[in-house]
Amino acid sequence: MEKEIIVQKFGGSSVANIERIKNVAQRVVSYKSKHTDVVVVVSALGDTTDELESLAFQLSSTPPDREMDMLLSTGEQISCALLAIAIKELGHEAISFTGRQVGIKTDKTHMKARIITIDGKRINKAFKDDKIVIVAGYQGVTSDDDITTLGRGGSDLTAVALAKALRAKVCEIYTDVDGIYTTDPRIVPDARKIKQITFDEMLEMASLGAQVMQARSIEVAKRFNIPLHVRSSFSKEEGTMIIKETEKMEEIAVRGVTCNKTEAKITICSVPDKPGIAAKIFGEISKQGINVDTIVQNVPHDRLSDISFTVPKADLNKAIKATQIIGSRIGAGEVLEDRNVARVSLVGSGMRSHSGIAARMFKTLADAQINIGMISTSEISVSCIIQQDLADKAVKSLHKAFKLEQI
Amino acid sequence: MEKEIIVQKFGGSSVANIERIKNVAQRVVSYKSKHTDVVVVVSALGDTTDELESLAFQLSSTPPDREMDMLLSTGEQISCALLAIAIKELGHEAISFTGRQVGIKTDKTHMKARIITIDGKRINKAFKDDKIVIVAGYQGVTSDDDITTLGRGGSDLTAVALAKALRAKVCEIYTDVDGIYTTDPRIVPDARKIKQITFDEMLEMASLGAQVMQARSIEVAKRFNIPLHVRSSFSKEEGTMIIKETEKMEEIAVRGVTCNKTEAKITICSVPDKPGIAAKIFGEISKQGINVDTIVQNVPHDRLSDISFTVPKADLNKAIKATQIIGSRIGAGEVLEDRNVARVSLVGSGMRSHSGIAARMFKTLADAQINIGMISTSEISVSCIIQQDLADKAVKSLHKAFKLEQI
Hints:
The structure is a homodimer. Chain A is built from eleven helices and 20 strands. By secondary structure, chain A is α/β, with parallel strands linked by helices. The first copy, chain A, has an eight-stranded mixed sheet with strand order 3-6-2-1-9-11-12-10, sandwiched between helices. Chains A and B meet through α1, α2 and α3 of A and α1, α2 and α3 of B.
């Protein structure tokens, strides 16, 4: 009988100290059996990555990316060695590997490299020796034999890519929450853990503010149809399965409510209503490397219209500057900024077959006396930009209106 | 014109914090020129290695050596990346490498691996690009692609081995003292820095208690005749050259006085004077992995003699136990221990051609009212085991008697 393979990924908070590393070791060995091989991917201990980064920035405000990768990759190497030691202490065979040692080849984009291939040879050899395999997350190696890292959250990507390469049955993502919730339980105590969610829904939720998993990893899992199980490293309870199609797909219209307070709104007033104007404005902003989200243009009045859009708060100043320059060049009016905005969204694949979700959302917000500033929709989500100080109220109202506490 | 190559090794205290790393960077770039390529070997920052070891020992009292190497090798990887960042910040080109990346191949003895070959390809390529090369000390890789470390002080060995492989002009060992002294300046304020010392003298001094450099590295430097320059990372002053033959070799009989307080003395009384008895005793002790140093056997009296020998204090209990077992088996008397001993030694290649050094040493100690318990000699050293609390007095008297403050 062929053995089943499980890939388990433990984040930094799961291995933040010696006690937690021991806890993870206990957990891992409980999954290893005659019929199951286990690969564990670990992140750096607690705040190690931040601490290493801080050392580098004390030496240079622009440390070279290649050297940063050399530096930061040590964090995961430390935790995988420690976990292997902890597992061996429990009387099980374990072996730790760096990303390079298990053949994770990447391109040469240091600090956010992309995985090109994985050669699972060393892992399969370790499986033959019945060893639990521990892999340093977040890292790979270029064809020039330079160490690379995969960007923040890159250990998720290591886990998913290994699950694909090894044809694992499931890829478990252990974290400090016990799954994906219908909304943030700190805002709505009634929020329910979602048992199953589709890749598309999860991607939408991640891009709209839910911060459980790195979006790139979900995309890769989706592309290769690798089931993800997001669960807590501190309890044995089942978490949330992220899969291609959920059981009750047709019935459930709305899977969750998300809220994102990291954006700001820019409005450029009295823009002449000529073809190509929008292209000019957003071309200039994108040149600055700023991601624009929702864009709304008013119906023109006297051949002049107002254009509003949202950008990450961190990029607001740069975006305002760029908008002012292009605004004066095209003869537009003043440029306004608004930091007091939030994006509240409904997400659910069921929207494809259920109509009236958006209308019900608008009515719910209206009933709660919440004004909608901008609206944007995708195939499986509806978002409203509202005043930030009303965001929690909006989330509560929507969670209740769509009966998410009952799913 | 062919470029000259310098290898510089900086120990942990030289890179213990951000300011010191910047200091090392300044120092390194001052040596790089059109005509000189520089390879820098670095140890782990300050106490990093001890801290990593302590994490491992919190998980297991016997962490596997392979995993320890995976863990400990990160210390040097961190410091070499940081030094490369600091050098680039000064406007110079630099590139960091792990031991593996510069092709340091070792055997499979984890925690104390031996270097088999060094393939300098990547370093030579970096030289062609006019880069300063920073190499993580203390580590290599096996033919199975497992990371190894070279044992405590292994960064010295990395530096010497690289100097050999690259045919470097000199290998500079930067440390927190400014050279080798005629004796410990904390005991004798008049102690003088030695300008030149031979490999043999340095090896003898290291084995007799001087703790500046790892003995294995000196052996390798001797074998390949690589001049070592031991000097301070905090001053520009010349340190001590360790070379094959010093200039005034014939004139100077005694190069230095060393003192070692890490040994203890064991005496096994009333040993029957039969052939093969010594072999039995020391065979048993060596089976325990204990290194015995000086051995003295009294002239037998009534076919019984006392045998005394020294062992490291750390192994004393184990050695006493082994000695008692074998003692009762061969019908010997009681076993005595003495922790209050020290070894005081004179070292100098000139002893080969100067006679009477030992006699003058014994007279000096006698004049100072110091009793000699045991004596041992090598071709270039004389050692006396004396009472430990008289050791400093002995060192002072000998330093003065041999006029070492005047060399």
